[in-house]
Amino acid sequence: MNNIIDLRSDTVTKPTLRMREAMMKAEVGDDCYGEDPTVNNLEQLAAGMIGKQAAVFIPSGTMGNTAAIISHTHPGETIIVDSESHIYYYEHGNMASLAGVMPIVIDTQDGCFDTDQLEPYLQRNPNRFPKTSLICLENTHNRRGGIAIPIERMKSVYEMAKEYNVQVHLDGARIFNAALALGVEANEIANYADSVMFCLSKGLCAPVGSLLAGDEEFIEKARIARKRLGGAMRQAGILAAAGIVALTEMVERLAEDHENAKSLANELSELPEFGIEPEKVQTNMVAFSTKQLGISAPQFAKLAEQQNVKISIYGPTLVRLVTNKDVTRDDVLTAAEILIDLAKKQLS
Least C-beta-crowded within 10 Å: which of 10, 90, 197, 232? Predict the structure, then answer.
């Protein structure tokens, strides 16, 4: 059987042997009583790494973002989100259906708001308009090409939010990728958000789980929100054990994914019709267009899968490729060769 090169997402990564061993040996207890020592250790480790007072272990990033919105807001209020943000685009309307808030959707060039885009909404008269209680940022930004939002941009948003007594939540699903790209520690990014969600199950390769971090009062609210959402677990230390390995052994390895993504972009850029600019690839994501090939993204993805290369569909003529632990440099070069060959056949 030919090797399948899966570039759909870094969520497809398999847990490492060390993770499996840690899971087998994990000391556990009932986390709903706060008695799972491995979960407690993971939460303390995560809070320290991200520079917050406390953290709570949550089954998924979507649940983490939803719990954050519930904890920061009240029904009937509004939150500000980027038009291409994961919270707005992929979380099935949780902000409205579960948190009871409405989005103010702002289009940005790079996933981060300019202050002049924000201030008109923050200045609105609360007697006439719903209160704006939360600003959501995303770093790295998924649908903006996996770009890392510069800290200065986040700082300007955070300072304006504080001026108007508004909270900031960071969807930091890939915050360690952002930190690597920006050459900083993750806590320097998290410093400009009141709460941060980050995932263990993407590039860090854990099988399950995310962390939501913030101050102690916020995390107490988030634990209640997690319970309401069905995310409170029992002997969750089996899962948390893999998360500890992810945070202690897998963060530095992300550099390999970034290097492979750059190599992939460089190879694919040899075909101008893809419209790839390698210098814009900052982390582990590469996107290209199939428009000039005269074929839709779903059709191109189907052809690629027939050649054992799996890619994501991101629009009618847009596809995304994500490097990850289970894709080697040789895999990347092979995939590039296959994709270029498929594209040339469409052009001929």
Answer: 90
Threshold 0.90, pTM exceeds: yes
In this structure, is the dihedral angle defined by the CA atoms of residues 203, 206, 212 and 213, taken in order, positive or negative?
negative
Contact 47, 213 (CB under 8 A): yes
Q: Is 113 helix (H, G, I), strand (E, B) or coil?
A: coil
Domain that holds residue 161: 17-249
In tens, the pLDDT along 224-259 reads 999 999 999 999 999 999 999 999 999 999 999 999
Q: How many domains does the chain have?
A: 2
Distance CA 212, CA 341 (A): 43
* 76-123 confidence digits (pLDDT tens): 999 999 999 999 999 999 999 999 999 999 999 899 999 999 999 999
Q: Which residues pair with 287 in a beta bridge?
A: 320
Domain boundary among 219, 249, 279: 249
Q: What is the average pLDDT value for the chain, to the nearest integer?
A: 97
pLDDT of amino acid 1: 46
54, 215 contact by CB (below 8 A)? yes
Mean pLDDT across 321-325: 98
Residues 258, 245 share a domain:
no
Regarding whether 331 and 211 lie in a shared domain, the answer is no
For residues 258 and 232, membership in a common domain is answered with no
C-alpha of 171 from chain center:
6
Is there a single domain that holds both residue 99 and residue 226? yes
CATH of the domain at 318: 3.90.1150.10
- pLDDT tens across 154-174, in order? 999 999 999 999 999 999 999
Q: Is the dihedral of CA 52, 57, 58, 60 positive or negative?
A: positive
Helices (H), 254-312: 254-268, 297-306
Whether residue 26 is found in the same domain as residue 103: yes
Backbone phi, psi, residue 59, to 5°: -60, -35
User: What single-letter DSSP state applies at residue 172?
Assistant: -
Same domain as 111, residue 51: yes
Among 249, 272, 294, give the residue marking a domain's end: 249
